[in-house]
Specification:
about 30% helix; alpha/beta; about 25% strand
Amino acid sequence: MDVVICTEMDEMWSYYHDKSHQIWLWWAVNHAANTPLASTFGTREHKNLDQLLKLLEPFSIGTVYTDNHFAYQKRISAEHLVTGKKNTQKIERDHLTLRTRIKRLCRKTICFSKKEDIHKAVIGTFINLVFFGRKLDFSTIL
């Protein structure tokens, strides 16, 4: 596994079916390479940050750059946590890329997912294709 010294973490709001079904994409990107390391979906509670941190355990993470969300301050030690917008510009730019290219992530749209599983699959597939350059093999499905 590559050694990751710094990472950016953030959460991005979206919804499926209607706006009463809110869901957040929690994810972390390598600060130097701007590549996603891990992601998870859920509410804006601590337990979802815990899931993300568990996915990041195989990496050797030193510094974590985040916004001022209280969950990060509760779960990440102060010696490793740096809050503020100065060092989270890459992940915020990735949010803009996602919102621009996946219309179901726009805040005001008529494009939306009716089911949670489809919503997660579309976003996860996009992250794999765009950020990792992975190609899908549909021969096993069709």
